[in-house]
Amino acid sequence: MATPSFDDIYNLGKAEMILRRPELVVNEGDVTDFLLAAAAAMADKNLQFAAELFRKTFVDTADGADLTTLADDHFSIVRKAGTAALVPVTFTRATSATAGTIPAGTEVATGQDASGNDVRFTTVADLPFIIGETIKSVNANCTKTGPQGNVKQGTITRILVSLFDTFSVANNSVAAGGNEEESDEELRERIRNRPNTFRRGTLSALEFGALQVVSVRIAVATENLLSGLVRVYVSDENGSSNLQMVSDVIIELENWRAAGINVNVTGGKIKTQNVTVVLTIDTASGSSVGILTQPVIDAITERVNQLRIGETLYLSLICQAVMNVDKSILSVSVTTPTANVVPLPEELIRVGTVTVS
Question: Distance between CA atoms of 178 and 186, rounded to whole angstroms?
């Protein structure tokens, strides 16, 4: 039922006024009209305020700080803050005649782009070298939170401080675990899935448990019905993972797995897929490939990037995403990929380059 409108309140007040004083006449602009309108405006504002408070008590209509409060107060679920990427970095020196320590907090970085920007990391622990040692590794955290810290393998190449010896630095694996603050929709999804976890030990409960780790944004649990093996695949929002993330999930899942059941945790990997589509356009509509290119690219990217770990990319999914862009698109042909893309169980398909013609 809709809340009463301003006119409803005004007319209700007018009816009550005449019921009490039948001889009263309400003319537009006179004092009785003024008093009725003022009272109706105040009542309308109070109804709006009450409706806003009521809206904030529902998962689907609360947002922002209100959803954060609702999740914590009603469901004991805390919104995840943004997280910084973590990566092992390897320091190497040519000679080993000197002993010393690379201190915790040593800053390293990627190469600079054309605008002079880079991504910086600081080591999390002291790294001692004794005489005879030339190469050692230590974890490093990105100095900023968010997915920009999930840099590729081999991109951290600069040491930004002076060390006790001459070193080079490199990351021999991708950085992972960098995420934006949990979005409203991600938080809503965790709240909706909570009832499925009450029994624990179920696949839904294992996924929910893995998502309690702050660096994890995607979790998929599977079971081999023949062997009984249970495996949980985890990644950050980009689809990457690292050993620290996997280790954190293994520890957390001790609170969620059934007794006697061995749960294996595997880090997710990105599988990049380029997409090429050919459109047939109703030119009489005034539309063209040029006009529709960017909306089609956005639609394909958004839909494919909703896939979960291990999910197949069907050609029909790409076609449907394109057809939903505009009624002037009469048909679409997918030339790349040429068939449905079936990833490995730990792979997460994400869009590479999208070409539209």
Answer: 16
Q: How far is it, in rounded angstroms, from Cα 104 to Cα 115?
A: 29
- CA angle, corner 212, sides to 210 and 213, nearest 5? 80
Mean pLDDT of the 112-133 span: 96
pLDDT at 283 over 90: no
Statement: the pTM of the whole predicted model exceeds 0.85: no
Confidence check: pLDDT of 259 > 90: no
Count other C-beta atoms under 10 Å from residue 338's C-beta.
9
Q: What is the CA radius of gyration of the chain?
A: 29
Please identify, in words, the CATH class of the domain defined by 184-267. Answer: alpha beta
Extents of the domains making up the chain: 6-75, 84-170, 184-267, 270-356
Mean pLDDT of 237-261: 92
Say if residues 72 and 153 touch (Cβ distance below 8 Å).
no
Burial of residue 225 (CB within 10 Å: 0-12, 13-18, 19+) is exposed
Count CB atoms within 10 A of the CB of residue 267.
22
Measured distance CA(279)–CA(299) in Å, rounded: 14
Instruction: Tell me how far apart the alpha carbons of residues 65 and 45 are, in angstroms, rounded to a whole number.
Output: 22
**110 phi, psi to nearest 5 deg:** -75, 170
Residue 1 has pLDDT above 70, yes or no: no
